[in-house]
Amino acid sequence: MNWNTLATLMFPQGFEITERNNFLSGTAQVDGATVAVIGTTEHTPIGIEIALAQAQAVLKTVREHPQRPIVIMVDTQGQRLRHRDEMLGINSYMAHLGKCIQLARNQGHIVIGLVYDQALSGGFITSGLMADACYALPDATIRVMGLPAMARITKVPEELLIELAKENPVFAPGPENYVRMGGLHAIWDKDYASQLAQAIRDAGSVDQRAALGLQRGGRKWAQRVMDAIVDGHDVAEA
To answer: What Rg do the C-alpha atoms of the chain give, in angstroms?
Structure first.
């Protein structure tokens, strides 16, 4: 879905969002209050420029509008694979973006992520997955790595990975599998405006992803290991 069409549906009370070089920034009205909006479009890869632009937008909101909710609209094919970006330290830029989002959360900003088209690899990890809660549209494409590429990297036959993906969401792309793992809180189908307003009201400061993954049966050990560490037990006892 085109970001402008989505914004019209998601922000019926009005919005002022600009697009520049596939970077989205601006404000919108949600449930009678102003929220900050940042994001990406056109499946853009995350290079140093757009990672820094997103980080700057987050810091500006923290500095000028304390505790204003932030909505991150995600559409990216992942980290930009260029020698220039690697030499300039794209990993550090992306880490900086993630730290800025965490800073906003620490300062009382509710952060909501929405995958409205593509969300791949590091471009998703340091944006939508850093939010208090992340959601997706039904037709969104979400994956860390495609199964053919995973087969080449891991040397595991693609046919075996396809079979594993049927039972284990870790191997499988698609928003439904990320819901099972707890990475997504839910998939939005209709009435995006009311669902966004409800997401902001429901957002909390405690990371629920591991607990959701355990509850939904898609990520069975993360929460158990965390609890064992906190309680000082041997992981095998969990």
So the answer is: 18
